[in-house]
Specification:
heterodimer, A: Elongation Factor Tu (Ef-tu), domain 3, Rossmann fold, seven-stranded antiparallel beta sheet, 17 strands, B: alpha+beta, three-stranded antiparallel beta sheet, 10 strands, 29% helix, globular
């Protein structure tokens, strides 16, 4: 099937700063119709027309999944990033027409769980906001542990504590508060599933602790989208389409393929889903792997690359595209 | 559009029949003169007006009688419909998807009006008028999946997605080609496909699963599958093999044209939005050999496909014993002339 995802034409209905770093965006359908429902944990890929260049960034949907009038996302400004979040913060205003993908869920609730234990760090709170609303509507059993840097940077912490007073626990880094993970995990009832969304360090910490305590792998769910990092420009030859293309400093290999009209499927654009996996035909140089889809062994073998986040440094790279 | 619904049976006296219009729109499964497994998935988008691919859920002249047959099968064996507890939300997803699609595509037959969560559903062919509260099971006579699939042609499997696999955790299966929901419920994709010969070695299941795990909302897919059935039976289940199995031994060169049916499954796949599960409807279409032979292209092609099919496949599909008789019958309709590409009859 063709690349990418089914698309929705939307209009920005609201732009609301939440704190110094995070801004919330509300989308409604441009034709006035209803948006599809979605499942908590889903993301949408937002297309940005930035000065003749198309950026496609995934953002978790944080609104009530049953609300078909509007979608909401929150974007954290990343001044070191390649510019997607800066574009959202500086160029996107109410009334702008944009194109977003249908919802895609790579961080779904396991509905068999007797209890859903959610562990969030920073902007990783957003998928949980949708999941909590979904579970609240269906009498699901959930509990959130949310780590923020400071009270003023704790997006939605106050609002969540008010709405779910007995289920939400907030931890402030600047006050030296931290999740007592070992006791938290030991105290969970049988049939609990753990969900983690936050910085890589937090994900590794919770996964490591849960594994050490003997939790089954199937009961641990996490979502980590990598933003594609900038890097040295490089050249790639494409064997199937018979083209030679340039990948710019602030461009991902996937974006360079798209800019040259080369069909490359994608879902997450963050090194997680495996959809854009591409075979390496010839490589004289070093593949800079940044995904967490391929195994370490596959990274070493150098026969595959994930163009959404990974790069190349060297003389010749030929890909099977 | 107005559909004239047949009054017909799929058991006992087997009065099932296809009108000339139904024969012409039959989804003949062979696009060329040979057959081998393939993933063969394509987007399930509106295709060819009047064909079974025009709408998300095809309603045809057999609708009312097929639903009566399903009710009889369920009364005899309630385990044909099962839903594990975590699949209720997926059942609501399916109900919503089907009601919205049928009300949109067949406005003269079905209507759905919503006042918040209070929904009003009218199904004119089955004379059903139901007001209920969406997501409140106590307001429907059955669970949501059972309720809507008692009103929709075809079998339905609901697949939960977790641990990078798909799990057959709910279904309404009353017109199956010799597999059992009660046996398969709870199995994952590789477990329930284990009996299929050759395909595993060909790597088909790994590729198909990868495709399905990435199936997206708003982008449903479809494929055709097929088998052979003696008499127009919907219920060819393993549970009832003692009833239908012996029918396969009653074929003669005189009666094969009227008793032997090509059974085609239109299999579609939809990502369900609220649950992130996948709906897998399996819609069976039946057409007797002598009706198929009214389309010269299909007569030639069916002969060539069956003549060249590997024995393992004929065995798996359950017609190896009758294959020589089928070829004897079909060879009369194959003059050796070339056939055109694609599945549809040549325009006159």
């Amino acid at each position: 099937m063709s690349a990418g995802t089914a698309k929705l034409n939307v209009t920005v209905a609201e732009v609301k700063p939440i704190n110094d770093l995070v801004t919330r965006f509300k989308f409604i359908r441009t034709d006035g119709g209803e948006l599809p429902t979605f499942s908590g944990g889903a993301h949408t890929v937002v297309e940005m027309q930035d000065d003749g260049f198309t950026r496609l960034n995934p953002y978790s949907l944080m609104s009530d999944p049953a609300d078909r009038d509007a979608y909401m996302i929150s974007v954290r400004r990343d001044d070191q990033g390649r510019g997607g979040s800066k574009f959202m913060h500086s160029k996107v205003a109410e009334g702008l027409e944009m194109v977003i993908s249908n919802p895609v869920n790579l961080f779904s609730l396991d509905l068999r769980a007797k209890k859903h234990l959610m562990i969030a760090g920073g902007i990783g709170i957003t998928p949980f906001m949708a999941q909590m609303q979904q579970l609240a509507a269906t009498n699901g059993h959930f509990e959130l542990h949310y780590s923020v840097r400071t009270a003023s940077l704790g997006s939605y912490a106050e609002q969540l504590s008010e709405r779910f007073p007995n289920r939400v626990n907030i931890y402030h880094d600047d006050l030296g508060q931290a999740i007592d993970l070992e006791n938290l995990l030991i105290g969970q009832p049988l049939g609990t599933h753990i969900y983690i969304c936050g910085p890589k360090g937090m994900i590794d910490w919770v996964r490591g602790k849960a594994a050490a305590l003997g939790w089954p792998r199937e009961a641990i769910h996490y979502e980590e989208f990598l933003a594609p990092a900038s890097g040295k420009p490089f050249e790639v030859r494409l064997a199937i389409s018979n083209k030679t293309i340039q990948v710019g400093e602030n461009q991902s290999l996937l974006e360079a393929l798209e800019a040259n009209d080369v069909d490359a499927p994608y879902l997450c654009r963050g090194g997680a889903c495996g959809q854009c996996e591409t075979a390496v035909v010839e490589c004289d140089g070093e593949l800079i792997h940044r995904d967490h889809w391929l195994s370490d062994e596959q990274h070493r073998a150098g026969k595959l690359i994930m163009p959404c986040v990974s790069r190349f440094d060297g003389k010749t790279l030929v890909l099977d595209r | 559009m107005t559909i004239q619904f047949n009054d017909e049976t799929f058991r006992d006296d087997f009065s099932f029949k296809n009108s000339p219009a139904a024969i012409k729109r039959f989804p003949f499964p062979f696009h060329e003169d040979s057959y081998m497994y393939s993933v063969n998935l394509e987007p399930h988008t509106k295709t060819r007006p009047g064909s079974p691919f025009e709408f998300a859920f095809d309603v045809d002249e057999h609708y009312v009688s097929e639903m009566k047959d399903r009710a009889v099968t369920l009364a005899d064996d309630p385990l044909r419909c099962q839903s594990l507890p975590h699949m209720t939300l997926a059942g609501w997803d399916l109900l919503e998807y089907i009601m919205e699609a049928k009300a949109r595509d067949y406005p003269d037959l079905f209507s759905l009006t919503k006042d918040g969560n209070i929904w009003h559903w009218e199904n004119k062919p089955l004379e059903i008028d139901q007001t209920f509260i969406f997501l409140d099971e106590s307001t429907l006579p059955y669970g949501p999946m059972e309720y809507i699939t008692r009103q929709t042609q075809g079998d339905f499997a609901l697949l939960d997605q977790r641990d990078d696999n798909l799990w057959l955790d709910a279904g309404m299966i009353t017109s199956q080609a010799d597999w059992s929901l009660d046996f398969n419920v709870g199995m994952n994709f590789f477990e329930w496909h284990a009996p299929v010969p050759k395909a595993n070695e060909m790597g088909i299941f790994v590729r198909a699963l990868k495709f399905l795990l990435n199936l997206q909302q708003g982008a449903p897919a479809r494929r055709l599958n097929w088998t052979m059935t003696v008499n127009p039976l919907l219920d060819t289940s393993p549970e009832n093999y003692h009833k239908w199995g012996p029918m396969k031994t009653g074929l003669t060169i005189e009666n094969i044209g009227s008793k032997q049916y090509l059974r085609v499954e239109l299999q579609t796949l939809f990502r369900l939005p609220r649950s992130n599960a996948i709906a897998f409807p399996i819609r069976a279409y039946l057409c007797r050999f002598e009706d198929l032979m009214t389309v010269p292209k299909w007569g030639r092609r069916l002969h060539r496909v069956l003549r060249d099919i590997p024995d393992e496949l004929a065995t798996y599909k359950g017609f190896i014993d009758n294959k020589p008789l089928m070829l004897e019958y079909l060879s009369r309709f194959d003059d050796g002339a070339p056939t055109s590409d694609g599945i549809w009859p040549d325009e006159a």
